[in-house]
Amino acid sequence: MIQHTRRTFLKTGAAVAIALHTSARIARAGGMPDVSVAIAPTLDQFGYGEVELLEGPMRQQFELNHSFFLALDEDMLLKPFRERAGQPAPGDDMGGWYDNSTDFDPHGSFHGFIPGHSFGQYLSGLARAYAVTGAKPTQAKVQRLVRAFAPTITTKFYDGYHLPAYTYDKINCGLIDAHEFAADETALEVLNAATDAVLPHLPRKALSRSEQYALPHKDEAYCWDETYTLPENLFLAYRRGGGSRYRDLAIRFLEDDLYFDPLSEGRNVLPGEHAYSHVNAFSSAMQAYLVLGSQKHLHAAQNGFEFLRATQSFATGGWGPDELFRKPGSGEIGKSLTRSHSSFETPCGAYGHFKITRYLLRVTRDSLYGDSMERVLYNTILGAKPLKKDGSSFYYSDYNVYRASKGYHRDKWPCCSGTFPQITADYGISSYFHDHADIYVNLYTPSRVTWKRGNARISLIQRTNYPYDLSSQIEILVDKMDAFAICLRIPGWAGPKTTVAVNGHRVSFDIQPGSFARLYATWKNGDRIEVEFQAKTTLEAVDAQHPGLVALVNGPLALFAVGEIPQKLRRADLLGAGQISSGSNTWQVKPAAGILTLKPFALIQDETYRLYHQIEI
Q1: Which of 1, 5, 127, 594 lies 20 to 30 Å from 520, alpha-carbon distance?
Q2: Is the pLDDT of residue 588 over 70?
């Protein structure tokens, strides 16, 4: 079993006790069935429309994706569904994985790999974007797509289809999001038809990849389906009014035997598994905990995430070189830095990472999960290159020590084109949380959160250049004076000189790194909080077997060397790195051979770079 440190005790002990007393029945509008859930998390999310991202890289990335998918041709999106239903299919082909084509060869061309696979994710991203912005053209597009998709539904779609569960899971997500966030009154009825269509093509239980390989198959791509990721969205379909069939299906596809049972017992079964889909499955375990009250699934998610963080992660927070988890103690993660340029499946991996850290943070209030989310945000997904009109998509972050660079996946419209608009729409709801009385500031980013407390309207406006300037200013706007707590995440890396001030006066209390600092006051309109973090520059080895192969980390940022880079550097040189000026996004090291420049991943464009450096021990 995993040792019960302070954090794991919070996860498996106290937090569970806090949550267990709560049971809720959510009555659905419009005659929908009641939904029984066993656990209410101790922290709630704000609605998409209650958090506004202000000018900054997160807002810019969201707006690019929103406008990109709003402009996508609807006939192109629907073409593979119409073709496989034997219906007229106007419009051009999308290309790449998305097309209905016989070109696919698992050892060659991936053209036509999974026809229509990401349609549900594009629908989901648009529905969430509508919830963020309230833009009526976006809502109208979501509702048009649902109406146009409905008549294409047929079980024939999945005849000879490589990954039926994979694509259905995304269709499910898109339709329940269209219902929940874009007020589409037909979406759940359409989902019922889509579920009827796929069920004859699904196995009786969740199958691991090894189990699929043991079955007869025409080619190995038939062994790559991901039935074990189905439960999260099936539970959500149940919770949003789809009916008990979705809860029952979710239970059917929980991969308890080979995955959640051993994880719940503290056995690390990640090595050798496909990385993203098995992290995504942690969210299924969390929904099983919330809906069924299953302690086993909570422990599985907590232990699995701790294995991920402690044994599989790079300094960026990314994981899964070549999309595979590695055996701890083997040195394989370090070896991947010379063998692979496919270090982290970025939009998909970051989307799955954000989801599981949100779930675990809401259940436990443990700021460790916010720290982990922050690291993935600034060092991976914010550096993703934008989608191109032809479906070219940023896919892998490259941490190879020889001429690493950013680029696009060889195939058009791969899986990461679907998760990219979903995660950028989720930036706002990942930034703040609340309980019945207090608000929690999780991410330091330019933003405004607004909510009603009783009859009062409250807003927090956050202004910051974080993480280049490790400080943030928060203004409180209230209709009338009100008493509540504002809880600030104090990252685990924060140094002893970290300070918090209210209206210019330093608050005198013990600030504990790796916790939320609770500021309780009777707030009046215009009050201000200033938080300033101290961060040390540190070196993080890629794994224990390569102690001299290190990345330079400052606060939440992993720093990437660009330009002329010496093959070897001294530890003292790297630890002497500093920003070229206060608040700058560029760092410099001055070794004997000259000046070395370092940048965060989000600032790198087309130049080559290096994350890990060989130092003399």
Answers
A1: 5
A2: yes
**Continuous H helices in 94-149:** 119-133, 136-149
Q: Rounded to an integer, what distance in angstroms lies between the CA atom of residue 536 and that of residue 359?
A: 29
Neighbours of 133 (CB within 10 A): 18
The type of residue at 155 is: T
Written as one string, the DSSP assignment of 184-235 is -TTHHHHHHHHHHHHGGGS-SS---HHHHHTS--SSGGGG---GGGHHHHHH
Q: Provide the mean pLDDT of the chain.
A: 93
Q: What is the pLDDT of residue 535?
A: 96
Half-sphere exposure of residue 194: CA atoms within 13 angstroms, side-chain side:
29
CB 574, CB 616: distance < 8 Å: no
Which residues lie below 8 Å from residue 125, measured CB to CB, with a gap of 6+?
65, 69, 418, 420, 421, 422, 424, 425
pLDDT of residue 7: 35
pLDDT for 566 equals 83
Contact 485, 438 (CB under 8 A): yes
- Copy the structure tokens of residue 155: 């079980």
Going by C-beta distance under 8 Å and a sequence separation of 6 or more, which residues neighbour residue 173?
120, 121, 124, 233, 236
Q: Is the CB of residue 416 less than 8 Å from the CB of residue 170?
A: no
User: Percentage of the chain with pLDDT > 90?
Assistant: 90
Beta bridge partners of 589: 596
**Angle, helix 74-84 to helix 119-133, in steps of 10 degrees:** 150
* Local structure of 77: helix, strand or coil: helix
Least confident of 34-38, 43-47, 153-157, 269-273: 34-38
For 514, other C-beta atoms within 10 Å of its C-beta total 17
Provide the token pair at 531.
């938080």
State the burial class of residue 525 (Cβ atoms within 10 Å of its Cβ: 0-12, 13-18, 19+). Answer: middle
Question: How many whole angstroms separate alpha carbon 448 and alpha carbon 465?
Answer: 15
Burial 554-581 (b: 16+ CB within 10 A, else e): bbbbbbbbbeebbeebeeebbeebeeee
- Determine the Cα–Cα distance for residues 536 and 575; give it in Å rounded to an integer: 9
Residue 311 DSSP SS3: helix
C-alpha separations of 262 from 266, 297, 600 in Å: 6, 10, 37
User: Does pLDDT of 17 surpass 60?
Assistant: no
Percentage of the chain modeled with pLDDT above 70: 94
Q: Is 29 left (phi over 0), alpha (psi -120 to 50) or beta?
A: beta
Task: Give the model confidence (pLDDT) of 200-248 as tens digits.
Answer: 999 999 999 999 999 999 999 999 999 999 999 999 999 999 999 999 9
pLDDT at 6 exceeding the cut of 50: no
Question: Do the beta carbons of residue 134 and residue 49 sit within 8 Å?
Answer: yes
Going by their DSSP bridges, the two strands 499-502 and 482-490 should be labelled as unpaired
Is pTM beyond 0.70 here? yes
What's the pLDDT at 33?
A: 62
- Give the total residue count for the chain: 617
Q: Which residues contact 578 (CB under 8 A, 6 or more apart)?
A: 537, 587, 588
Average confidence (pLDDT) over 76-80: 98
Beta strand pairing call for 482-490 and 439-441 = parallel
Kind of pairing, strands 396-397 and 344-345?
antiparallel
Contact 357, 383 (CB under 8 A): no
